[in-house]
Amino acid sequence: MEGLDKRRQYFSKAEVAIHNVETDCWVSAFNRVYDVTRLVAAHKGLLTKPLIQNAGKDVSHWFDSRSYEVLTHIDQKSGLRVPYTPEGRFVHVSPGAVPTTSWNSDFEKEWWKDDNYIIGRLTMKSRNVRIINTLTGQKNTIQVCLEETLGDIQNRYLPFNAHASSYSWKYLGKPLDMLKTLAENGVQDDTAEFTRLSIQEDFYLPAIHLYFKDDLTVA
């Protein structure tokens, strides 16, 4: 489908969690997903240790939820308000009450306020959906994000079928609007009801059927 942005807008917690090493380091905070791999590479040393130790995890608890500033507390020795970093001071956090010549303040924005490190948002909820290619009979179950449009889901499906845009996407025989979400297309998420009834989530998955419609697109 032409015009669809192939950049990922939303990520599940599971997707963030796999980026959990120094050379592939993601964290999330207040539903924002950050790729701090370049930051870690540029600031090797103790200040990157908290980021590496929390790679793939949520670090919202490091910050004030209203100001997005690092949490602070009163230092018992100096009586001054200083950054509260129980896991260790990290990149772009001032040394607080103890002056040091190693403090490098040569940056425009702290990384958690810098849009250059934000690669998407953390989904409110993820769900599974089954996609069935009626031409080949291929069936795939993929995890998608609640906020994603069918166009976004189509992009997620591309590794399974590079020509996904050459198919009509339908649910219960009805064409789907690729600019709307699953819920907006009437594909409801029943996982909460399944949980209430103690039924396995994968007992029933909504199935989207793909119908071949035109010449193959260029892979």
UniProtKB/TrEMBL annotation:
GO molecular function annotation: metal ion binding
Ranges where the Cytochrome b5 heme-binding domain occurs: 8-73
Keywords: Cell projection, Cytoplasm, Cytoskeleton, Heme, Iron, Metal-binding
One GO CC annotation: axoneme
Pfam family, one: Cyt-b5
Main location: cytoplasm
Cellular localisation: Cytoplasm, Cytoskeleton, Cilium axoneme
Domain of life of the organism encoding this protein: Eukaryota
Function: Radial spoke stalk protein that binds heme under oxidizing conditions. Required for the coordinated beating of multiple cilia maybe by functioning in a redox signaling pathway.
Family recorded in the similarity comment: Belongs to the cytochrome b5 family.
Protein's name in the database: Cytochrome b5 domain-containing protein 1
Species the sequence originates in: Hirondellea gigas
Biological classification of the source: Eukaryota, Metazoa, Ecdysozoa, Arthropoda, Crustacea
